[in-house]
């Protein structure tokens, strides 16, 4: 397999944004998600009972829902990234333990993302969450 240097640079930049997403959500810095998604991004979390909407709608929803959990975090892995010029697709596995005392569960989900390279670098233009599993902790 031959990969050119620009593809490596693009994939690393996309990886940084995926990490920025997890860090923003896990730290409660939801406004930082504006640096992850395009201004007109469509985000669909309905596979796990969440909402589908704009960045503004998702930030407002996260600010309402996540304080109900005492513990949560995102472990990202198994990334598949395909870059084609100024567009890309990725599929990222996320293991997401969620605890709302006294109960908790472990989510196994995929983030299926469409990416756009703009003046500010790579951003997610569309995210569709897909559920693998959900198990009690």
Explain what you see:
The chain has a single domain, classed as Nuclear Transport Factor 2, Chain: A. It is built from 2 helices and 7 strands, in the order αββαβββββ. Strands 1, 2, 3, 4, 5, 6 and 7 form a 7-stranded mixed sheet that branches. By secondary structure, the chain is of the alpha+beta class. The model has no long low-confidence stretch (mean pLDDT 96).
Characteristics of this structure?
alpha+beta; 2 helices
Summarize the structure.
By secondary structure, the chain is of the alpha+beta class. It has helices at residues 5-27, 55-65; strands at 37-44, 52-53, 71-72, 75-84, 87-100, 103-118, 121-136. The protein has two helices and seven strands, in the order αββαβββββ.
Main sheet properties: 7 strands, mixed
* Count of helical stretches: 2
Number of structural units classed as domains = 1
Order of helices and strands: HEEHEEEEE
Pick out the low-confidence regions: none
Globally, the shape reads globular
Assign the CATH topology. Answer: Nuclear Transport Factor 2, Chain: A
Architecture (CATH level 2) name = Roll
Q: Radius of gyration over alpha carbons?
A: 15 Å
Query: In whole angstroms, how far apart are the ends?
Result: 41 Å
Under CATH at level 1, the class stands as Alpha Beta
Please count the beta strands (DSSP E, at least 2 residues each): 7
Helix content: 10-25%
Tell me the structural class: alpha+beta
Strand proportion: over 45%
Q: Kindly report the average pLDDT value.
A: 96
